[in-house]
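Might I ask for a little of your time on a matter of protein folding? Here, with my thanks, is the record as I have it:
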Amino acid sequence: MRRGARAAFAAPALRMYGPRDAAGQLWNIQRGPVTTERILIVDDSAEIHADLARVLPGYALQRADHGVQAVELVRAACERGDAFSLAVVDARLAPGIAGGETIRRIQELDSALHVVLCVARSDAAPGDITEQLGVTGRVLVLGIPFDPLELRRLVDALGHTSQLIRAQALQVAALDRALGDRTRELQRATAALHEEREQRVATERVLARAQRMQLLGQLTAGIAHEINNPLQTLVGTLEMLSDDADHRGLDDLLIRIRAAISSASRITRIVRDVRSFSSPQDGPGEAVVVSQVLEAAITLLGTKLSRIELVRQFDDAPPVLALGRRLEQVFLNVLLNAAAAVASTERTPQITIRISAELETVTVEIADNGEGIREEHLPHLFEPFFTTRGVGQGSGLGLAVSKGIVEGFGGSIEVESRHDEGTVVRVCLPVSPYEPAATPVDEPMTDPTTALDILVIDDEPLLLRTVGNMLRNHRVTLCASAREAIAILASKQFDVIVSDVMMPEMTGLQLLEHLRQVSAETADKIVLMTGAILRVEASSRRALPPERWIEKPFSRRQLEEALERRVAAIKKSLGG
């Protein structure tokens, strides 16, 4: 719009008011609406800039004298976040880049910018200009001269459109951000649900296993009770026969009887091993010297370790808090596994046992150079009934039982192994705050010097007679039920009372509670025989001191010692 710039506007430029807008407001061409919209005027004529300033008084106009300057102004506005609403560009810019190229560059910088391209009608047809720029809805070609009102309406409409586009873009960006935030929230929620589901599945597995173990515990407790009663009869009878054969010099019969006793003792250990699933810990623990328990376990294994190089590396260690026979069961299980592992390797079989102490923990490591354990089997080692041995070569209970025993003492057990390299089983136990008790001397069984008046109660006739025979050096009264015992106790006093727990009509525990109400002194004389620690016994077992219980099957010595302890405790309480 350089030449004939004053002729850029047609005669109606003096008309002050145009038609009403959509809101019914009259346009004042000279004053116009008050607005802060920014418009870029790109023209090399100062007169055109002045004319447009008069026609567009309500807008913030920015002047650019050539295309390069216009491009820089648009770039700077975009970087500030204060973009132009509209650009009015002269098609015949000079010097520098032409109007069409200027439009292309500024719209590359600001895709929402609308442009009014002013073209002299004598220069080119609007269609030719559009063809040069390409098909676009953001460029409107306006012929010169033009009506000022037409220009004003055009600028207002395109500026408003530009604002709407920018507002829409902001809305879309906000929606994108909100959608992104929501998507991330959903992803987090999905991850949390997935984790919760995995935890629930894991919990369900644990509960299912606990239910299976509970059923197994009830089953094994029942089996143990049924086995221990006839086993008690077997053990007691064999002991009596052994004593008789020894006195009469029947050597061959004595050897056979003692072999039978040994087999019965082995059955006892198996039953106690299985019962570990259903029974609570036997007590809070006592001071135990680990090296003594290990030596006892090694002695019990005997020939199973005779062809294995056994290396002992025992450091000085304080006593641990445990129960000797339970801890011995753990070491027996681990040593048996180690012996089986080294038997299948071509290397010289070797088992190394280490004892070390650190702070409040004593650690026992039993390492073998056997076949080792495959990596996929390691997570299952402590699962009940899991075994890598062949059918009939292992029950899969050893490590599962050992884990329960060790953790019951407040310790831990873990396994490290590599296939074809060997295995290390590490047992960690807490140091005991108590001093170890003196080791009892295993003296031959002798008849007691003082005969006691003893009442024995059991509903199984054969077992009742067997226990009576085991106490033949005392004055024994036998009765087959708790009700019968109550009638006898109403008229006769005894030094000690031996009662089975599981009996029909009235159990041994119920008898104990009845006697406590009738005569606390009589109730204090009871020693309870149990074949299986069932759930119903658990609380009462913890409430009574250990000397008030004796587990089947028991030997004559164990029975005598239990009764002697009870009588001594009664005398002490009476001040005797």
